[in-house]
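Async update (no meeting this week)

Hi team, since we skipped the sync, here's where things stand on the single-chain job. The sequence we agreed to prioritize is pasted below, unchanged from the tracker. I ran it this morning and attached the output directly underneath so nobody has to dig for it. Comments welcome in thread, and please keep replies under the output.
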Amino acid sequence: MDPKLFIENCFPKKVQMEFLSCVRDGYKLADSMYELLPVKAKYFDEFRVRAINYTVEATLIYAVKQNKIPFNWIEERNSANNCSHLKLHRDDVILTVSQVERRRLMPREAVFRTYHSQGNQMSLFEELLGEIPYVILTHGYKSKEPKFAMLGMPEPPSAMGWAGEPIDITDSIVVGSIEERIPEKDAFKMKNEVLERLSRE
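Output:
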C-alpha cells in the first residue's frame, strides 16, 4: 500500500480543506483566550502552545458534529489518567492530531501512537495484517497562525518515523472565516472547555 495514495483516498481534498480550516480556527481560538484568563498569564506564548493542542481538537470535534468531517470521535485518556488526546476514527482508518515544531517532524514518542502504528504493518503482499491503518495530522507552531499542517502515516513498529512522505495540506483552501464557521456562543463555550482541560493538567 502506498501511504500517500491511502491518505488521499481516506482524506480527499474536501476533508483536507476542512482539516486545515479547523487547525486555523483552533489557533485563532487559542490566541483569543488571553481575555478569559483569571490572572493574565505572564507567559502567554507558553500558555498558547498548550492551549492550541486542545483548541484544534475542539474545532475538529465541532466539525464532526456539524457533519463536515465524516468521522466519529473519542477522547482517549492515557494509562496514568492525567492526559487525553482526540482520536477520529472510521472502520478503515484512525487519525490523531499533534502539534510539532517543524514540518515533517514526528510527534514525541507516546504509547498510543506506537500502538496505533501497528495498523500500518504491511505484508509482502501489501495487505493489512488485520489492524486499522493510522494517520497523524501534525501542525505547528508557537504563533497566532499555523505555519504548516501535514498528514502522514507513522512507520511501525515504533512510530518514530514516517512511512513515505507526509502530505502537506498547508496550501489547501480555507473554508470560510472562523466567524462564519463557528458561532460566537459556541466559540466561547469551546474556550471555556479548553480552560477547564488545561486546569486539570
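Quick observations from my side:
Confidence is low (pLDDT under 50) at residues 122-129.
The longest helix spans residues 44-65.
Reply here if anything looks off.
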